[in-house]
Amino acid sequence: TDLNKIRNFSIVAHIDHGKSTLADRLIQETGTVKDRDMKEQLLDSMDIERERGITIKANTVRIDYKADDGETYVLNLIDTPGHVDFAYEVSRSMRAVEGSLLVVDSTQGVEAQTLANVYQAIDADHDIVPVLNKIDLPASDCDRVAEQIEDVIGIDATGAIQVSAKTGQGIHETLESIVKELPAPKGDVDAPLKAMLVDSWYDAYLGVIVLVRIMDGTLKKGMKVRFMSNNTLHHVDRIGVFRPEMEMIDELGPGEIGFLTASIKQVRDTRVGDTITNERNGCEVALDGFKPAQPVVFCGLFPVDSSEFEDLREAIDKLALNDASFSFEMETSAALGFGFRCGFLGLLHLEVIRDRIEREYDIELITTAPSVIYEIHLRDGTMLELHNPADMPDMTHVEHLQEPRIKATILVPDEYLGDVLKLCQDRRGIQEDLTYAGSRALVVYDLPLNEVVFDFYDRLKSVTKGYASFDYQMTGYRQDNLVKMSILVNDEPVDALSTMVHRDRAEARGRAMVEKLKDLIPRHMFKIPIQAAIGGKVIARETLSAMRKDVTAKCYGGDASRKRKLLDKQKKGKKKMRQFGQVNIPQEAFISALKMD
Ligand code: GDP
Ligand code: MG
């Protein structure tokens, strides 16, 4: 294809501002998919994405568009994920395209993820076309939002296109702007092949599919290529494009985006950001590589029914084949038996994987407390990375600990600012900046990641009635006074409930946890002490009193119906409980005990 007739772009938006719907309309308007085959959110392939309304993997589609100038253009859209956990995937797909549509909901305005994503587009040197969406709604206020885009982001929004992705209004103008405002890609067809490995995933029929952007040269079916990062050779057996179904073609030239297959067995054998070139006389200099996405949140996944361990192993193996940012290793817990210590990009990523194991593989799981990676600096001068509080070495060997910090950007309507500042303060945050964008405050905080991974986002949503938006970036490690807190149930330490906490907050956290556990653990025939301890020192204690022999509902007093439900649940699913010494602890306790409210 003639380079001048190609436009490559992505769509950046805050979640729910209409990115997927707009993509659907662009596909439909150009006749890429026949009306009768059209279904909503065409690019969001996985069930779970559809249900939660989020896009997780970047998806791509090639659209042919006959423009008003009479020429037919090839438009390649790479759809990017909208959630903070997947910011890394956004950045890598941005590097494969030259421009972005910046979609802002004209009833809402700029949000934290709008900012985070648009900055990534600016970093990738994109030309940006602002699009104001949802103009069919009465609350739409295009002037205000255009002004806000100029004030907060600093790009010209006077020509912003007014669109309703729902009704199709403004879609034609959007297509024309893509052709007129965004630059054509550059590339040298006579140079050796230089292709960027944008993404890869596993397909049951074709094996690993590799999404590529050709920078220079031509990728042809049947040729032998070299992956420059690990110097491996592969025979290209298929080349194709997404429309959005796969369509096989014979070659891809400069500026084009498509996929190849080459009998590659595992996603792990492909490195995102790698450069693909000819086997012989390849290009001299590789593209700047990407750093691989590093898991930042770790937790244990254990089968509720220990006989399902092998099934769990199989499920995790399969999921990992297709998700290089998900890591795992076997873990044994005195409390929970055999399971896996798994690493994730963030909490949403964790939930997605956990849900898929439970749903697609039908394995019930116990999830232990999510933890970040601590750096333990030992007295002998060595450093270890702690992925699991249960592995914390004896404090007498420890010189100091460091924990990961983040820079959090929060946009919030004025009236909730006080609550947000309090929340950040409670989570050991240090305020870095506070500015205004119209009636909304833009707050920047330096926070410990461990205070954020668990329920910060939920709390933020609840104190602001859903009006705050949030985004974060990792910034580095800092020393602090951190200790391991253990939980003892009936004098037995339950390793899966160990957490790292700040020393100043240990008592409060410990008290909250033992109180929660007292509610969550059903009564037994004997008294059960529940304690929080640091080293050998107990810092909080509750006692769950014994159940009387003549069990009737009225014995429970207080919140009878809730405890009754708990008991009913216990009866229904003995399986949902784990035995610790003589005590049964329900599955939900492992997560609920850690929620701070
Ligand atoms: P995404 O998270 O950015 O991909 O957003 P979606 O495309 O999933 O849209 C979020 C919600 O807004 C969905 O319920 C859409 O139906 C709705 N929506 C998207 N565009 C429009 C629009 O132009 N008008 C109206 N009224 N609703 C829209
Ligand atoms: Mg979407």
From TrEMBL:
<dbReference type="InterPro" id="IPR038363">
    <property type="entry name" value="LepA_C_sf"/>
</dbReference>
<comment type="similarity">
    <text>Belongs to the TRAFAC class translation factor GTPase superfamily. Classic translation factor GTPase family. LepA subfamily.</text>
</comment>
<keyword id="KW-0648">Protein biosynthesis</keyword>
<comment type="function">
    <text>Required for accurate and efficient protein synthesis under certain stress conditions. May act as a fidelity factor of the translation reaction, by catalyzing a one-codon backward translocation of tRNAs on improperly translocated ribosomes. Back-translocation proceeds from a post-translocation (POST) complex to a pre-translocation (PRE) complex, thus giving elongation factor G a second chance to translocate the tRNAs correctly. Binds to ribosomes in a GTP-dependent manner.</text>
</comment>
<dbReference type="Pfam" id="PF00009">
    <property type="entry name" value="GTP_EFTU"/>
</dbReference>
<keyword id="KW-1003">Cell membrane</keyword>
<feature type="binding site">
    <location>
        <begin position="16"/>
        <end position="21"/>
    </location>
    <ligand>
        <name>GTP</name>
    </ligand>
</feature>
<dbReference type="GO" id="GO:0097216">
    <property type="term" value="F:guanosine tetraphosphate binding"/>
</dbReference>
<dbReference type="InterPro" id="IPR006297">
    <property type="entry name" value="EF-4"/>
</dbReference>
<dbReference type="GO" id="GO:0003746">
    <property type="term" value="F:translation elongation factor activity"/>
</dbReference>
<dbReference type="InterPro" id="IPR035647">
    <property type="entry name" value="EFG_III/V"/>
</dbReference>
<dbReference type="InterPro" id="IPR027417">
    <property type="entry name" value="P-loop_NTPase"/>
</dbReference>
<keyword id="KW-0342">GTP-binding</keyword>
<dbReference type="InterPro" id="IPR000795">
    <property type="entry name" value="T_Tr_GTP-bd_dom"/>
</dbReference>
<dbReference type="InterPro" id="IPR004161">
    <property type="entry name" value="EFTu-like_2"/>
</dbReference>
<comment type="similarity">
    <text>Belongs to the GTP-binding elongation factor family. LepA subfamily.</text>
</comment>
<dbReference type="InterPro" id="IPR000640">
    <property type="entry name" value="EFG_V-like"/>
</dbReference>
<keyword id="KW-0547">Nucleotide-binding</keyword>
<dbReference type="GO" id="GO:0005886">
    <property type="term" value="C:plasma membrane"/>
</dbReference>
<dbReference type="InterPro" id="IPR031157">
    <property type="entry name" value="G_TR_CS"/>
</dbReference>
<keyword id="KW-0378">Hydrolase</keyword>
<dbReference type="Pfam" id="PF00679">
    <property type="entry name" value="EFG_C"/>
</dbReference>
<dbReference type="GO" id="GO:0043022">
    <property type="term" value="F:ribosome binding"/>
</dbReference>
<protein>
    <recommendedName>
        <fullName>Elongation factor 4</fullName>
        <ecNumber>3.6.5.n1</ecNumber>
    </recommendedName>
</protein>
<dbReference type="GO" id="GO:0003924">
    <property type="term" value="F:GTPase activity"/>
</dbReference>
<dbReference type="GO" id="GO:0045727">
    <property type="term" value="P:positive regulation of translation"/>
</dbReference>
<dbReference type="InterPro" id="IPR013842">
    <property type="entry name" value="LepA_CTD"/>
</dbReference>
<dbReference type="Pfam" id="PF03144">
    <property type="entry name" value="GTP_EFTU_D2"/>
</dbReference>
<dbReference type="InterPro" id="IPR035654">
    <property type="entry name" value="LepA_IV"/>
</dbReference>
<feature type="domain" description="Tr-type G">
    <location>
        <begin position="4"/>
        <end position="186"/>
    </location>
</feature>
<dbReference type="InterPro" id="IPR005225">
    <property type="entry name" value="Small_GTP-bd"/>
</dbReference>
<feature type="binding site">
    <location>
        <begin position="133"/>
        <end position="136"/>
    </location>
    <ligand>
        <name>GTP</name>
    </ligand>
</feature>
<keyword id="KW-0472">Membrane</keyword>
<dbReference type="GO" id="GO:0005525">
    <property type="term" value="F:GTP binding"/>
</dbReference>
<dbReference type="Pfam" id="PF06421">
    <property type="entry name" value="LepA_C"/>
</dbReference>
